[in-house]
Design a protein that fits this description.
Blueprint: E1 5-9, E2 20-21, E3 33-34, E4 40-41, E5 43-45, E6 74-81, H1 88-100, E7 112-118, H2 128-136, E8 144-150, E9 190-191, H3 206-216, E10 233-239, E11 241-242, E12 247-248, H4 250-262, E13 267-270, E14 272-273, H5 279-287, E15 291-295, E16 323-329, E17 348-351, E18 355-359, E19 363-367, H6 370-387, H7 393-402, E20 405-406, E21 418-419, H8 422-426
Parallel strand pairs: 8-10, 8-13, 9-10, 13-15, 15-16, 16-17
Antiparallel strand pairs: 1-2, 1-6, 3-4, 5-12, 5-14, 6-7, 11-12, 18-19, 20-21
The chain binds calcium ion (CA) (3 copies).
Length: about 425
């Protein structure tokens, strides 16, 4: 039995019992599954419990975005059952209690203990001063297209209004490939998983929608705030993964990369991976002019982070100049226990624990994992590339790594030894 994880907001307005509850912390995502059509789905998303909790649509969700502004108000509580190996009856009792966020009235003292991780003020991507500088600067900004190769994206989400790439040369719904790019009615992107233009099928597309929101949800309007300015940064949704487990296969991923590049994307988020080495995928990525931001992965079957320099995971482990690999930072400034790392193949860390963002069917939810950390860097890369028109994409990569804020727990575990700092990045070289 797994322990249950509970996350709570520490502000006084939240009375006891108003915890945000997880639905379970089962970290096991199937590494591969065979489908009825004979494809082997070897790529999978990097996300783990507590799953998605939809919140009330009228809440100001930005206050939960600790990754963007950390006031030290969050606390993570893990209730560890001391008896789970010795007394299954008692363990079950505690587990039910954990689900509701209260200690169970179990017989005997100390049946459980709680472990806390408390947020540290300032452990965030430092985006507010960056926005202020950007907003005050009337200089020209570059238009940037960001491919999100993932599960699908809810392109009708109100918080993504104006954030989605539009294929201007394609006439919707006429059954004709007007722009002759090989895809019929690809108005906003393409679904390479099902080979059609349906970009959102429901909850199986929460993962991609979540990434899109972190990168470029509308700022200052409703729900959450995306990192990049959606007046200049547009998401190109390319669904290459599907099923409730977020699985996919190589061909869809490669075709999505080729589509992205052919249709103008310059930055590409890849929040998935596999332990299998695919030389063709590596070649396609190497030959691409895009900058890829890749999740480092969520560790082994026990949810313990791996050194991918030793135990590779791909595409995080491809040694390519146009890849930034991202680890998952907890809100106390530590590397998340489940996050992969690697002094050679991982570049920097970004917030990835209990990240609130958009989900399918116009929802919002918390998700955790390196899958959530990578879009933080992708949003920052797009913001930087749009703002700093003097930088090319290799300059964007150099800036993000060179200006990462060093943290003791990250030292020696990744190239930069630090976390994403957007404000520092936009001053790069000045
Ligand atoms: Ca077309
Ligand atoms: Ca058409
Ligand atoms: Ca918003």
């Amino acid at each position: 039995m797994k322990t249950r994880l509970i996350y709570r907001y520490m502000a006084a307005a939240f009375a006891a019992g108003a915890f945000l509850l997880g639905t379970g912390a089962d970290a096991s995502t199937p590494l591969a599954a065979a489908s009825a059509d004979g494809k082997t789905y070897d790529f999978h998303t990097y996300v783990y419990g507590p799953g998605v909790e939809n919140l009330s649509a009228s809440d100001p969700y930005a206050r939960y975005q600790w990754g963007l502004k950390n006031d030290g108000e969050f606390q993570y509580v893990e209730i560890v059952n001391r008896f789970e190996d010795s007394d299954p009856r008692l363990a079950r009792h505690i587990d039910v209690a954990n689900y509701f966020g209260f200690p169970a009235p179990v017989e005997g003292p100390d049946a459980y203990r709680q472990e806390y991780i408390t947020a540290k003020r300032g452990i965030d991507i430092n985006v507010l001063p960056a926005w202020n500088q950007y907003d005050a600067d009337e200089g020209e900004k570059r238009d940037v297209i960001v491919a999100v190769i993932d599960t699908g994206v809810d392109v009708d989400h109100p918080d993504l209004e104006g954030s989605i790439w539009v294929n201007a040369d394609e006439i919707p719904g006429d059954g004709i490939d007007n722009d002759n790019n090989g895809y019929i009615d690809d108005v906003n992107g393409w679904n390479f998983f099902d080979d059609n233009n349906v970009l959102c099928k429901g909850s199986e597309d929460d993962h991609g929608t979540h990434a899109a929101g972190t990168i470029a949800a509308t700022r200052g309007k409703t729900g959450i705030a995306g990192i990049a300015d959606n007046q200049h940064v547009k998401i190109m949704p390319l669904k290459a993964l599907g099923t409730e487990y977020g699985l996919g296969e190589e061909t869809a991923v490669i075709n999505a990369i080729r589509y992205a590049e052919a249709n103008g994307a310059e930055i590409c988020n890849l929040s998935f991976g596999t332990s299998t080495y695919y030389p063709e995928l590596e070649r396609v990525m190497r030959e691409s002019k895009m900058l890829f931001i890749v999740a480092a992965g969520n560790g082994d079957e026990e949810g313990i982070g791996l050194n991918i320099d030793v135990t590779p995971d791909y595409p995080a482990g491809y040694e390519l100049d146009n890849v930034i690999t991202v680890a998952n930072l907890h809100f106390d400034g530590s590397l998340a226990e489940s996050s992969n790392f690697g002094p050679k193949n991982v570049d920097l860390a970004a917030p990835g624990i209990f990240i609130v963002s958009t989900t399918a069917d116009k929802g919002y939810g918390f998700m955790s994992g390196t899958s959530m950390a990578a879009p933080m860097v992708t949003g920052a890369a797009a913001f930087l590339y749009s703002y700093r028109t003097d930088l090319d994409l290799s300059g964007v990569k150099a800036a993000l790594i060179a200006t990462a804020r060093k943290l003791p727990d990250l030292e020696g575990k990744m190239v930069s030894g630090g976390m994403l700092d957007v404000y520092a990045a936009i001053q790069y070289g000045r």
